[in-house]
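Structure tokens please, single chain.
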Amino acid sequence: MSTLQPSQAIEALIDNIETVIIGKTETVELAVVTLLAGGHMLIEDVPGVGKTMLARSLAKSLDCSFKRIQFTPDLLPSDITGVSVFDRSSESFKFRPGPIFANIVLADEVNRATPKSQAALLECMEEFQVTVDGITHQLPKPFFVMATENLVEYEGTYRLPEAQLDRFLACVSLGYPHASDEVKILDDQVVQHPIELVKPVLSPEQLLELQRRVRQVHLDDSLKQYIVELTRATRQHPAVELGASPRGSLALMRLSQALAAVRRRDYVIPDDIKYVAPAALGHRIILASDAAFQGTEARDVIEEVLTEVAVPAVSKESSYETA
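Here you go.
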């Protein structure tokens, strides 16, 4: 595996994924930012725009194990976490791990499973472990869940509870590609899918080291206060019934640190926080019924909050130089 500098390694990872995901630089960057921040991502979009390919290209670029779980109404929690099976040879129960035991897990159409099965992900995503029959099993590191849900087709779906939505560090949408990008997608797949040509550029161990470095990116005290004021402003907005929780503040902090690293800086600036705010806070806000009826969206609220909350002046100036 290559021994790239951190900034070069991040750039190589993004470039590698973009050989598969065409014309979606911002979403690819946010996916890498979420991964570096040590969180999980929810993608809300229509079928066929590349959600599965994004997860697979991430896994192949990092030489990580990858599992896909298709969520359906008859999916059981044990189908996700695993089950204890009686072994006659040893006359004891042995744990058979489920598909959640992988570095990168794609939870496809997560809103199609029952709330009981959805809840099986809560402990996994928050504590990076699984408890079956009173025994706790640690999940592999790194561990990254990318969940998808189709917001167009609601028949046979179960709305994700706020507690589970709050576990996702970021929520994004891929959207349809531009016409020129869609032509390139056709050209690239005439003979074979580009995912078959993706080679690892980083190892899981190198990713863990990058995640540790991201935690060391400097965040000025004034920016911590700015983050708290942003999340508190969502709770006080007249169009909001339930604003972002303190976990939203943590998400803003972690994502802005990771974005600063991607942008080759060892410190966070206000623009980093503004850039990740829609992805970090949008899915944590519940709109008041009258506001939703009038067409207000969570991102509209976030844009207003970003405009109204005063931006602090940060004097620290340095460059993102890594040894």
